[in-house]
User: What shape does this take?
Amino acid sequence: VVAHWGDRRSRADMDREIERQAKLLGLEVPHLIQDSGFDTLFRMPDGYTDAEIDADIMEVGVRIAREALELRGWKPEEVDHLRFGNSVGKGDVARELAVKLRTVNAKTSNAYLACNSAGHPLAESLQDEASLGGKTLLVVVDALPRLLRDPQKTDSDSIQLFSNGAAALAYQPGVDLEY
Assistant: This one.
């Protein structure tokens, strides 16, 4: 299951947005989005607070997790492992998701690893002996544009690539997928 949220920016809108953000951050933009192959990006509205972003992350995470469970025909209480990935971690989001989803018996883990927030927990679950054969729910929800607010941590490529996105996968390590 995949999802996105926020303001949808078309290719033309993205070029204007990239130029605007670059100017605000004092950056030069060597090329515009039309050169990247992207058709759209999803961004939070201007002025969106971290609390609003965190609430969106939780809402989107719960929604796509439920969809993934439904597609597999799994009940929440059947989930053995719930793994959460995000670039900018705050607290135990996996445990909070588990409570909201009612995956009461699930062992939880968080991976706050920037661009590897999806790949690492997936690979980890496929290598973890305790996870093999168990029902695993991987939920990755990212709001990378939140990182664009700090000119000390932003470059022109980030402005062009960072978008809101999410994915959830219900699988059995060693059964459905192998490392």
Observations:
- Strands lie at 2-3, 7-9, 41-43, 81-85, 107-111, 136-143, 164-171.
